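pasting Cytochrome P450 for the record, 245 residues
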Amino acid sequence: MEGQRSGTEIQVKISYPPCKSYLFHLLAEEKAGKKPLDRIAVTLSWTLAELVHHPEVQQKIQEEVDVFITKHGRHPTFAERDQFPYLISVQKECLRCHPPSPFGAPHTATEDLNFRGHFIKKGTVLVANLHAMHLGPEAYPDEPTRFKPDRFMQNIVPMAAAANTKIESRDIYVFGWGRRICPGIYLAESEVFAIMTRIFASCDILPVIDQKTKKPIYPVLDKARDSGLVMLPLEYNVRFVKRGQ
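structre below
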C-alpha cells in the first residue's frame, strides 16, 4: 500500500490483491447506499425467522439445553458443543438455507486456465454463488430446498474445523475456503451458539397475532431485502414468550 498527499486529499494505491478485494466489498455496499452489516446479526435474523416456522425444532433444541443446565446448573460454553448435536445441526441448516451473503469474496485468476471446458483469462474476477451451492442436489441430495436440520446430525464437526479439510468433505461453504477463508468463522459460530442456548433456555419464539383476524403472522422466508451485499429477511416481528406461559 502506498500513499501520496495532494493538498488536503490523500491518494492511496493498493497493490495487495486481498486488500483490494475486501475494500471492493465495503465500497460496493456503500455505493449501494447500504452500510456494511454484521454478518452475525444477519445470521441471527434469518435463524429466528426460520425457527418461528418450526416449533418442533425449537422443542428439540430446548431439550438439549435443559439436559445440560439440569446437570451443570449453568449455560454451556462453545467448548461443550459436543453435547448439542441437534443445535449444531440447526445452526448449519440455517446457514445453508439462508447464507448471510449470496456470493463469496471475489478472487482473481493469477494465470490463464481452463476449467471444465471454460477458458478463464488471467485477471478475471471470480465470485462463487454460495446461494446456489447450498441448494445443489449433488451436495445435499435429501430434499435440498427443505429445512431439515437432521441432514447434519452425522457430521457435527464445527464449521471452523471442517473448513480445514478437503473441499469435498465440507458441508457448509458460507465462510469461503482456502487461504482467504473468513477469519471470523470461529467467532461467528461460537457467538450464535451462545445466543441460541440462552434464548431457548428461557423462551419460545412465536409469531405475532393479527389483531383483526386473530391469525398468526409468520416471517417471509422466500424473499430478501435489498441490503447491499448481504441478504436480510423482510422486516418481521416475533414474540419471545417465557417458557411455561
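Residues 1-6 have pLDDT under 50 and may be disordered.
Residues 55-72 form the longest helix (18 residues).
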